[in-house]
Amino acid sequence: MSTESATGNDSWSSKIGNVQYPVADVARAVQFYQKAFHLDPRFIDGDRYAAIDAGGTTLGLAGPAEDITSGTPAAAFKVGDVTAALKAFIEEGGSIVREPQQGPHEVRAVAQDPWGNTVIIYGPK
Question: β-strand 95-102 against 107-112: which pairing, if any?
């Protein structure tokens, strides 16, 4: 199996950076996942966002200010080049829900695959 991407361009290869859950109260959500599943936060950005260590996967808890999916849970794909990844995504039948925008920590866009699943595509500023 080749390690090169299907398009022959590995300069924007991706990985799932986190699975994002929109929450109304970040502090309460962190407390909930700590007590329910014994998961510890890696990073907390006030009431905006928390990254929870879920054993090799990051659970992203997005407060209202960071909820870019309008309340829909989504896998967030971290890529080296958001523009190139979106182009390939669209060429394969996906659609853009929210154009790339500069967030507080990265550039991010929201898209849907051909089956209606919401994904976040994000990368460096």
Answer: antiparallel
